[in-house]
Amino acid sequence: MNMTTAAYFAEGSRTSYVWGAATTLYCLAAALACGCTDIPFLILATINAAVCSLMIFAPGSGPFSLNKFINLFILIFFVLANSVQYASGACATAFAATFSRDAYLLFQGLTFAGLLAFNGLYLAVYFPASRRRGRSLSRTRRKANGTRLVILSAAAAVVIFAFCGFDIPTMFSRGGWQRYADSSWMAGRQEVMLLFQRVVRPVPACCLLIGILTGAGSRRIAVLLAIALAASFPTAMPRSLAAALWLPPVLAVAGRYLHRDAAMLLMIFCILIAFPLLDSFRYADEGRDIEYGTRYFNTLNYDASQMTMAAVETDTVTGGRQLLGAVAFFVPRRVWPDKPEGSGHLIAGMRGAAYRNVSMPWFGEGYVNFGWTGVAVFTLVLALAAAACDARFKPKDVCGGNGVISYGCYLILIASILFLMRGSLMASLSALTGNIVSYVACCLATTRRQSRTHA
User: Fold this and answer.
1) pLDDT of residue 375 exceeding 90
2) Taking the chain, what is the end-to-end CA distance rounded to the nearest angstrom?
3) How far apart are CA 186 and CA 195, in angstroms?
4) Residues whose CB is less than 8 angstroms from the CB of residue 316 and which lie 6 or more positions away in sequence, other chains included
5) What is the pTM (predicted TM-score) of this model?
6) Are 363 and 115 in contact (CB under 8 A)?
7) How far is CA 330 from the centre of its chain?
């Protein structure tokens, strides 16, 4: 470990390590509370939780980063949820599945190897990239037209309201929104529906983010916030979309004002408390019981680790066909009838599941495409991309419109990374691309270039 890497973990307050230790102990306590007595499994899971927590609360890495969010995903989905499922003997998949003790031990062992490989590669690339950034980074300062921002946001809101027939209750309920979409003239027109969801619906939130990053003024930001809340209320959309739209503005503010650990503690709160609450709106008026606490980790929402285990157990390798389908997500099925389905859909179909809209994590995608070689390649790509992006962007560097397009896209990527990591790749890549296209289009329509500065 060189001195730069040492500083990454050594600078700052000891409070960061207190939070890291508390997070690790929570994962261990959750497994013990669910009745886990397997000492080797507990040791592996606790070590993995400690590694994730160390990276999440590393003092020298700023309030948030792609690396922090990726480690957070692994902590919650691959360590905590997997431990609860093993201890409870629960099946979190859409099909009947029973995994042996050896399968769980193997999964935690592979998770440990993956953590070392990902974080080791990340740190090896991050510091040289940070030094190069200081010499080569150029930014374009852009100034937003506040009137255009409000007009564009309001116009998009009118379109969104018109889509659901100006039915106010529908605007605040995911279940109501979906029932309306299924029963309206939009039913059966999947391409139009996806275009609306991916490009039009994000516009008010994108305008809000632009206003924050360019310093549009408190009054205009308040107006943009009110419009975005009315048009894109979090309870009226899937949690992945709600996070992609609302987390970037939160992070834009958090990067300037919140304490180093506050942003990640807020994310942990959202995953453990807020997301289960939002899930209740998915089944509004359907009489379904909503699970909370550790029981929530036994639901289909946390099938990521068991879906990966199922892919390995069935030795499902497609030779890159799934990746081809994900990259060509924009090609309609009526044009490409044999277009590959999502990897989670593929595994669920092989296991006879009736419900197939399930996840397949990033590392599982690597296995389904190219076997263990694919897992290694996907880990390498993830580490290189995360290190390059994190080294380029710092919250304090973006002020008054500097780098507003690229930094906004970075915030959207961070907000979408949990969905991208959970998968499946085809659905998450489609959503991420749509959000970024919408944001860039909003930037080009409402801002103008002022000058170019060099850091």
Assistant:
1) yes
2) 28
3) 12
4) 346, 347, 350, 367, 368
5) 0.89
6) no
7) 20
Q: Which amino acid is at 228?
A: A
Mean pLDDT of 316-341: 85
Under a CB-based contact definition with an 8 Å cutoff, are residues 273 and 31 in contact?
A: no
Distance CA 364, CA 186 (A): 34
Regarding predicted confidence, which is higher, 285 or 408?
408
The distance between the two most distant Cα atoms of the chain, rounded to a whole number of Å, is 63
Give per-residue pLDDT as tens, 218-268. 899 999 999 999 888 887 777 778 888 888 998 888 777 666 778 888 888
pLDDT tens-place string over residues 146-171: 889 999 999 999 988 887 777 777 67
For residue range 135-148, list pLDDT tens digits in order: 444 456 778 888 89
